[in-house]
Amino acid sequence: MGLFKNLKGAMSAMTAGAAEGNRLREVGVPAQARIDGVQETGMTVQMGGPEMPVAQFQLTVMREGAEPYQAVHRQAVPRLSIGQLVPGNTLPCKVDPADPNKLVILFEGGSAPGGFTASFGGGSDSSWDDDSSSFDS
What we know:
- It is a single chain.
- The protein has one helix and seven strands; from the N terminus they run αβββββββ.
- The chain is an alpha+beta fold.
């Protein structure tokens, strides 16, 4: 019973994450996200297409009219985009105008996958491990 309940909760979270990613693609403010670090989470998701690994990113987000800020973000990554996950690389993203810690990375020049996305607390006082570029392709 407990396993079924956990599975149901995970599925609900993935569905909510996909809906949030789609919402941000629609209403988000264009920005750039510099990859400061990326880790493999060990999770994969499959929502109507090929299975995709979920990565956790440490980002510096830059958008017009705002100071750059740091954010921690999880998102499914299309396997063909894994080569872009290099610290120092900058990717386009969309940021929630009401909560700048919510964002979606737009892989391949603006065509983000419909998949799991989740943001965590950020801000200029965030810190993380310096050895954060451990995503294996």
